[in-house]
Amino acid sequence: ESACTAYLGNMLRVVRLRCPAVRGVRAMATNPYPPPPPGRGATADLCDIHIKEPVDTIVEGSGVQIMQSIFRDYGKRTRFSGQVSTVKCHESNPRVRAALEEEGQGRVLVVDAGGSQRCAVLGDNLAAMGARNGWAGVVVNGCIRDSEDIAGMEIGVKALNTHPLKSSKRDPGLRDVPVVVAGTLVTPGDWLYADRDGILVAPYELSMDGDK
After folding, report:
1. Is 0.70 topped by the overall pTM?
2. Which residues are part of a known binding site for Mg(2+)?
3. Number of domains the chain contains
4. What is the domain-level CATH number for residue 181?
5. What is the pLDDT of residues 56-97, one digit of tens each?
6. Do 18 and 99 belong to one domain?
7. Where does Mg(2+) bind (predicted)?
């Protein structure tokens, strides 16, 4: 009986080492924060409900803004949403790390890196930290790296492109200030909705029945 028990114990250890799903379950068990809720609605449906004006008067007519379609999806979650926190930086990411170290509470971090494509301001370590701490997603007006690893993480990540070089730590940047990203003014406390079709930003939470 003891030999059988030892054999089963060894087999379980092998499965844990080789099976990503089992490792993921163990990681979830040690995650101090619950995963963020799924995205609240498809951006196309939200546009149909909340935008009643012609395209050239969208901002004035509804308060809902649509970002220019310049982002690519990199995280496992392609649909995500939440209240916005912002970082403004230039080729430096200390504020990005500081933000993702916080409890996310289902928020979305918008990083305005000035559109720089000379280095990455987010990598696998920071993305994993954001997923562990309950951030719904990160939108980067700039580049990320470690994209193959980030593709398997339970977090939404959108960015302009990838770049293998990490950023510097020279400029700490600014936290929770208004930023302009992809032609859209994003203010801390706004609500952001993202999926494969695009990104919406609104000053209030959008519902699927047309009510604010």
Report:
1. yes
2. 146
3. 2
4. 3.50.30.40
5. 444 444 589 999 999 999 999 999 999 999 999 999 999 999
6. no
7. 146
The 10s digit of each residue's pLDDT in 135-175 is 999 999 999 999 999 999 999 999 999 999 999 988 889 99
Alpha helix ranges (H) inside 58-201: 58-62, 94-100, 124-132, 147-150
Whether residues 18 and 111 fall in one domain: no
| Range list of H helices, 51-183 | 58-62, 94-100, 124-132, 147-150
Burial class (CB in 10 A: 0-12, 13-18, 19+), 56: exposed
Helix axes 20-30, 2-18, angle to 10 degrees: 90
Q: Residue 12 above 80 pLDDT?
A: no
Would you list which residues are annotated within the binding site? Answer: 123-126, 145-146
- Residues annotated within the binding site for substrate are 123-126, 145
